[in-house]
């Protein structure tokens, strides 16, 4: 295994949050940043200093402090200045407010999610479309016009997903196109010369929207199955997960949200479209955690996952849209299909039984994990090769060899943040960026050594492969075998 080298950084670093992902990232920063670690500050509103002894031994400071709208500017000004770096792994600090401060003060920035000060404010009174990540991204775009394209680099939503999955989508599209061109025996019918020429041109230009359209990709699942198991059973009244419980709860009770493909014949029941912006997404008036779909991962095989809202459903579908004037000529359907650990699924079920009231007792699985892996990737469907999966198959045993004391889920996120940090430091004047704006090869060169096996494989799986009643379903799909309705589980 070839680990990434050292990255020289002369400035200060403020790491907001010292939860599970932050605790996993910190050893990677110590290992791969060439800097004076007395210039590293870790800040959290909880007293978690005892969880990061190696970071503190390297010279870093721990500050216990809660950032609020009133003290944000003062707090950041005490720890950061021109050319410094803010790594935001906290939750419920408004993304626009914190990036605005960074833009005005020329500070580099990265986070793993787009946040609000209070995501639950008036949620019962809000229309489902107002509670979406789409609405948050529209607000971000408004402010980005004021910040300018050449401001200090601010990368949003760069974790495992969103984040790595955008890079794996590019890998998959390139591999599908290459296979179609160089191994035509795999195809159901020969490529016509004009299409082959267009594919070669798009591959050479790294035009991933054209590659998606020319390969015939209709659906992109972010398919994940987490099989990590522990020797400490979940107790009644306890929420157990392998990553942030508050973050999982917030997105789980939000409306299901997905990029909506141009091949789709009809909206699902309870769906709403958007009136402004690229209109590349829809939302459904039901929680993401109760919206279930069929999907597939290479080791785990067929899964039933949840359409939890995630930023990649917006950015991937947006970046892969091919426009004809103001009309979307082509766009794939993009959404998450998430099957977390058995303990997390039991926790969600109990939470739902409690009227979606989050359990007070909470536990992030760590040392009690005895086996299992987090198999996370992108599943591209509907093209001439049927299906193709690219992603990470990181198990707990390799995780502990790489970063002792961590689990596979948090290492996948931390590796992605490390890759983003490398790219940001080398590209400091790119303004606001989503993961799809970054060079996927540069980011993956840093992240891949921490991700376990990362296969790129073809599959013959379809949503009806393991459903004995599939031929009776999908009356509203008008014969479209890759329609969203074909994947839905009642």
TrEMBL record:
<feature type="domain" description="Saccharopine dehydrogenase-like C-terminal">
    <location>
        <begin position="159"/>
        <end position="451"/>
    </location>
</feature>
<dbReference type="InterPro" id="IPR005097">
    <property type="entry name" value="Sacchrp_dh_NADP-bd"/>
</dbReference>
<feature type="domain" description="Saccharopine dehydrogenase NADP binding">
    <location>
        <begin position="13"/>
        <end position="155"/>
    </location>
</feature>
<dbReference type="Pfam" id="PF03435">
    <property type="entry name" value="Sacchrp_dh_NADP"/>
</dbReference>
<protein>
    <submittedName>
        <fullName>Homospermidine synthase</fullName>
    </submittedName>
</protein>
<dbReference type="Pfam" id="PF16653">
    <property type="entry name" value="Sacchrp_dh_C"/>
</dbReference>
<dbReference type="InterPro" id="IPR023181">
    <property type="entry name" value="Homospermid_syn-like_C"/>
</dbReference>
<dbReference type="InterPro" id="IPR032095">
    <property type="entry name" value="Sacchrp_dh-like_C"/>
</dbReference>
